[in-house]
Design goal:
alpha/beta, four-stranded parallel sheet, binds iron/sulfur cluster
């Protein structure tokens, strides 16, 4: 049996976004058909409420946080970097136990973004903190916008 695919909870219909809504994506659901999934929301895991103030990068993106060159703050300026790092570590530990090799994460999120994310009000190139930490562990990551790059069965 192949390992489960890891997926951002909002992409499969959980109302866990900062605005209390989901981002259900039918293409993602189709891609998950026939597989087991591990559904995760790093921001809820970090203890942030739902709904909640939006968060954003200051000074860099996900990979910069790992090097100590950036942080993630709420709109009121509260630093939530450590909470998100710890939540990401916790999810990654669980993912390793299940042998996860592939993830589908929500594009543009400061936590899950794969190619783009928010620094202040600006959409910039770069990964969210959870996506960057997961990729560093060798997990192959797609977003709902890059599913076309997925080769059938390549992760089995
Ligand atoms: S993008 Fe990630 S952190 Fe944000 S709501 Fe979706 S699963 Fe949670």
């Amino acid at each position: 049996m192949s390992p489960p695919l890891l997926v951002s909870a909002c992409l499969v219909g959980f109302r866990c976004r900062y605005d209390g809504k989901d981002k259900l994506d039918l293409n993602v659901l189709r891609r998950l058909e026939g597989h087991s999934w591990l559904v995760v929301c790093p921001e809820q895991r970090a203890g942030l409420s739902t709904p909640r103030d939006p968060i954003m990068f200051e000074g860099g993106t996900g990979r910069d946080i790992q090097e100590g060159r950036a942080r993630i703050v709420r709109v009121d300026g509260t630093d939530v970097t450590e909470e998100l790092i710890e939540a990401s570590r916790s999810i990654i530990r669980m993912a390793k136990l299940y042998g996860v090799r592939t993830g589908i994460l929500k594009e543009r999120s400061p936590s899950c973004g794969v190619r783009r994310t928010y620094r202040g009000d600006d959409l910039v190139e770069g990964m969210g903190i959870f996506a960057a930490m997961l990729q560093r562990e060798g997990v192959e990551i797609f977003s709902e916008e890059t599913l076309g790059l997925w080769k059938a069965g390549h992760y089995l």
